[in-house]
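Submission sheet (multi-component)
Chains listed below:
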Amino acid sequence: MLERRVLVTNRLGLHARAAARLVRAASAYQSTIKLARVDGSVAADAKSILSVLVLAAARGTELVLTVAGVDEDAAMAAVCELFERKLGEERD
Amino acid sequence: MSKRVKSERAEQFWRGVTVSEGLALGRVLRLHGGATQNVYRATLEKSEIECEVQRFKAAVELARKQLLGIKERAELALGAEHAYIFDAHLLMLEDRKLLDEVELYIRRERANADWAVRVAADRLLAVYAEIKDDYLRERSSDIEDVTRRLLDALGGAPHERRLTRDAVIVAEELMPSAAAELDFSHVRAVATDAGGWTSHTAIIARGLGIPAVVGLRELYRHARTGDEIIVDAIRGEVILHPAGRTAARCREELAGMRPAQRGALQVAGKHEPLRTLDGVEIILRANVELPAEYEGVRRYGARGVGLYRTEFLLAQRGRMPTEDEQCAAYAEVSALAGTDGAKVRLFDLGGEKIGADEANVERNPALGLRAIRYCLRREDVLRTQVRAILRAAASGRLELVLPMISDIAEVRRARRIIEEERAGLRRAGHEAGDVQIGAMIEVPAAVLMADKLARTVDFFSLGTNDLVQYLLAVDRGNDDVADWFRTLHPAVLQSIKRTLDAAEGAGIPVNVCGEMAATPAYAVILLGLGARDLSMTSASIPRVRRTLAGVDAARARVIADECLACETADEAEELVRVRLGTEWAGLFPPGSLPAPKPRP
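Outcome: structure written.
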């Protein structure tokens, strides 16, 4: 199992469009992918949009990302990269 | 004493905000987005459970197919920026969290699928109601949208909404999915409780010339499908259950109106040349941005496209479109415009549209790195766009507009790049069409240099919105200074006149493409100043056509000359109100002229 912290940096936070991108990305992997608030108050299945939206992660929210499964390295890299790219929200 | 008869059918009146002008009398078709559909609880026999789960799965599949279709259509009509929401809807519909919960509820509670869906959705909505972030909390409306689609699918409700020819859509708020799937060619009018100028519905309604009034509190709750209704999107009113007399008056008004004023489908004589009473020919073209507006170009008989705003191509994809993608889009617009041609404006992009890095957000984007400045800075972007335009021009008539020119050097640089790309295309064996090159006149410096500028380009496009903003130093988007945005300010009129005269002196045409041309009273003043070629949102064409066909260019010129001599914007507005109102009273009903000034 891998664990890392990620930061929500795009302006609107983890809203519908950003969440949709995250779920599409996560669903491409077999591993279980979870996101949780740092205080442990809410945890979400990154492959469920309804669950991800409940995180209510506004800009600046730090989340704990855990990935476990056969393709965990690739899944971790892909999800982290998406967060680094501001969830694909801000264009260059 | 007569007894007051309590009647459900008493006339009811609402006042709202017009987002698309016109008048319609029709019958209400309520669209979901309002009061919750009634869902009933049934207890199943054990033997029925498996069957019910299958029914639920079939409904999910049906709803999924509908959403895929809607997403595709929305992408085509509105662009990926607006269609993304349907991807989120699809994911919600495929979400195991929801599917498993519904299935479990059906099995454990022996409940019918409809009830199970409602319960599961309500539980989710309750969670969302707790979210503190306003924006994210609003996403609950998406869950509700998906839930209703699912319930519709379960109810076997016919998905293709069969619209009678006189359907008036009444909704609390036209949800994106509902708006995207409507066949707007059968809709007579739209009336909603919520909504505003920029909602998708408003954009589509304006593009298609369908009368629409929004902000009608509780209309949805009172209206029933099949009720007679008047949507008066001229006065911003809606009358439900109009009394016989009221309906008759409306029919009379409709009969006396040109179809265009009704926002209706056919416009008589739309392809004949437009001439003023004294025989001056005027050309009316369409301003176009969204593909949803293309239909209006044909419908209202526009003489080609006077301004094609290419920024949408970027917004649609969320990235710079490739040369081939652009070429295809320009070819489509050129086919739409036919022999009259289309004027393609280079990307009018500024910091706010290209998502500039937050660190270097411009303090004053209107005066920043935008339009031609951006194009010249990002030569790769400019060259790609130029190649796409030249290639598309090989098979149709296209012209190229340089936005926000303030110095002739910009025209020269752009021309050199265009010629280089033309030569490059030919070397590579591509066909490159002949393209006339025009300058957008919207910066005061360009007005002052208009006589020299006119000798470096093939035509002018006069953008009145930005010209007013830059000339009067008024931010178009700032409500606090809205009172300073005065289209009839003598300085504006003098600038227009100077530009038109300079073009005439050099023998080049001028197309006036700001929204000023779409306002009948202003169009008459433009005519008087010497404008002969106007372009506007296509839905405004019939109205302006009717006005200009009923006036006399020589008399308009006298009035325009008087306006030019005014000392203040107030004075010019008052003059227009009084002179147009007396010369052509029939053409200018109250409300279509500047408001009278309070006497000091």
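Remark: The radius of gyration of chain B is 27 Å.
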